[in-house]
Design brief:
alpha+beta, two-stranded antiparallel ribbon, two-stranded antiparallel sheet, 5 helices, flat
Length: about 100
């Protein structure tokens, strides 16, 4: 749902991986990089991976671009439903990756 919405909007969802080239093209030194993501099971301390928060935040855009309706998303129960499904399937939950880049000039 998230990836399809980004595709329809035209968002470059790989921009984090393209940032080093963007820094160099801008005349900056090649940057250092870091990546953070939460990972865990449905019953673990990282069960809220941020995915449901992102879907809820994006819900108006998701609906606007015809990916799903807000009623289908049902923000009030989305986290509970996703955790229940993950628990039933024994899934490992991986949250969104956050990439940071920095350099010194």
């Amino acid at each position: 749902m998230i990836a399809e919405t980004w595709r329809r909007v035209g968002t470059n969802w790989n921009m984090g991986l393209e940032l080093p080239a963007a820094f160099v093209q801008a005349g900056l030194p090649a940057p250092d990089m870091g990546l953070q993501s939460n990972i865990g099971t449905a019953s673990g301390p990282h069960s809220r991976t941020g995915v449901t928060d992102l879907v809820v935040t994006m819900a108006p855009v998701i609906e606007q671009h015809g990916v799903a309706t807000i009623a289908e998303i049902d923000p009030a129960t989305l986290t509970q439903r996703m955790l229940a499904e993950a628990s039933a399937n024994g899934s490992v939950l991986i949250g969104p990756h956050q990439i940071g880049v920095w350099t010194r000039v």
